[in-house]
Each structure stands twice: as C-alpha cells, then as structure tokens.
C-alpha cells in the first residue's frame, strides 16, 4: 500500500500523483493524521502553499483505495512538506441512542429509566472511535439513568405475584426516621462498556439531597463504583515531599 494521490479540495490545483514525490512521505503504508515529506521538489508544491487548506490524501493498494483522508492543513517549509489534521473518511461510524423505561403502569412512575447510546462515533471522549455501549447517556439533553428501588420492587412483585417483603437492611435517615434502601433513587453517574478495549465503569450514587445515617456518621450521595480503568483520585491529597 502506498500514497497514490494528494489533492487540494478547495481549488483546481492539479493533484499530486508523482510516485517518486509521494514516496518521500513518512507514512506511506497506513493512514496517519499527520504526514511529512523531506527533500521534496518545492516547485511541485508551490501552488498548494498559496491555496486554502482542505487537503485530501489517498492510500491505495493497486487500484483499491484503502484510506481516504480529508480536511488536512498544508505547510511548506523549504523542502519539507507537512500535512496535518487529516481525518479518516474511509471509516464509517454508527450511533444509536434511545430511552428504555421499566415498569410504568398507568400514572405510576417508572421503576427505571435508562438512556442508552451505542456506536463508534468519534468524539472528544472517544477520539479513536472505539465501540462503546453507554447505559447512562447524558449527551444531547439526555438525562442519564436512574432506578427507583421501591417502584422497581413493587413492579416485580405485581408481575410475579410474589407478596414476600424484600429483606433489605434497615437504616436511619438524617432526620432520625426509619428508612430502607428501597426508598432511594439511584443515579447512574457512569455505566458504560468499551467493547473495543474491554473496559467498563459502573458508578452509581443516590440522588442529590438523599442521605443515610449510621450511628454518628452521615453519608451523603451514597454510592459505589466498580471499574477496570484508572480513575482520577481527586479525593486524595498529594503526597508531601
């Protein structure tokens, strides 16, 4: 595979197809966001230097185009050409999103609201275009995901015909009244699985304003987190030298 053509899409400048000139670039066998060529024939590239930027680079295997990159910025310094900011336009991306509700009946609140987004769209959070399933989508005004434990338990009981009382540990609210874990609405701060990297982050917390008290200890925004990626330890003080 080699670079077979470099073209300025913003002008009528003839495309560069000279195999000798194109072979001078440092990434001839695979797509790269930035490519550089040393000892070029400056006169070959002089028209590119005065035109608006929108450079297309094509990598091909014989007559078969493998990569087509667009949006590049061109720079000529002496006999060195640098094309940067290329975006791979030969890779298709897919995005699917929606909302799943569990248990709403009549005017009942939903037991669970799950905003889902999956795909391999390239974003600031996913610059490599990995395949990701996000069960706590907050983009495009999506409200994330939450579970109302009490409503969920009641919905399950109605649908199974089971009248047994869920055995959950009793706790005391901040105001001293008895509370049970099913009284809490649980928010998903993060709940995603990166299919490409096989990494995940499952992070839930209780809704703002809900607290529980164990003896002399009051815990706000109760939650837990399970992940196999490094996290930012913002709660820890930097070691003193």
List keywords for this structure.
single chain; mainly beta; 2 domains; 7-stranded antiparallel sheet; 17 strands; 10% helix; elongated; disordered C terminus
Topology of this protein?
Layout: E1 2-8, H1 19-22, E2 35-37, H2 42-50, E3 55-61, E4 64-77, E5 80-84, E6 87-88, E7 95-102, E8 112-119, E9 132-134, E10 145-148, H3 149-160, E11 171-172, E12 178-179, E13 185-194, E14 199-206, E15 211-214, E16 217-220, E17 223-227
Antiparallel strand pairs: 1-3, 2-5, 3-4, 4-5, 4-6, 7-8, 8-9, 8-10, 9-13, 10-13, 11-12, 13-14, 14-17, 15-16
Can you describe this structure?
- By secondary structure, the chain is mainly β.
- The chain has two domains: 2-88, no CATH class; 96-206, no CATH class.
- Helix content is 10%, strand content 40%.
- Strands 7, 8, 9, 10, 13, 14 and 17 form a seven-stranded antiparallel β-sheet that branches. Strands 1, 2, 3, 4, 5 and 6 form a six-stranded antiparallel β-sheet that branches.
- The two termini are 53 Å apart.
What does this entry show, briefly?
The chain is mostly beta strands and 241 residues long. 10% of the residues lie in helices and 40% in strands.
């Amino acid at each position: 595979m080699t670079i077979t053509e470099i073209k300025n899409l913003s002008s009528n400048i003839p495309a560069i197809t000279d195999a000798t000139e194109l072979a001078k670039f440092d990434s001839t066998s695979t797509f790269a966001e930035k490519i550089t060529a040393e000892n070029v024939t400056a006169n070959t590239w002089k028209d590119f230097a005065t035109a608006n930027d929108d450079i297309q680079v094509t990598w091909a295997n014989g007559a078969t185009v493998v990569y087509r990159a667009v949006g590049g910025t061109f720079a000529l310094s002496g006999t060195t050409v640098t094309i940067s900011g290329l975006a791979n336009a030969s890779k298709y991306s897919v995005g699917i999103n929606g909302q799943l509700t569990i248990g709403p009946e009549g005017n009942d609140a939903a037991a669970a609201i799950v905003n889902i987004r999956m795909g391999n769209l390239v974003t600031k959070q996913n610059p490599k275009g990995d395949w990701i399933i996000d069960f706590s989508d907050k983009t495009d005004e999506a409200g994330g995901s939450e579970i109302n434990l009490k409503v969920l338990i009641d919905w399950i009981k109605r649908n199974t015909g089971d009248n047994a009382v869920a055995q959950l540990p009793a706790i005391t609210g901040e105001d001293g009244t008895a509370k049970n874990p099913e009284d809490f609405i649980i928010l998903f701060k993060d709940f995603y699985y990166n299919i490409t990297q096989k990494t995940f982050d499952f992070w839930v917390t209780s809704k703002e304003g809900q607290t529980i008290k164990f003896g002399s200890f009051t815990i706000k925004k109760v939650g837990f987190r399970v992940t196999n990626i490094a996290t930012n330890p913002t709660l820890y003080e930097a070691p003193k030298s």
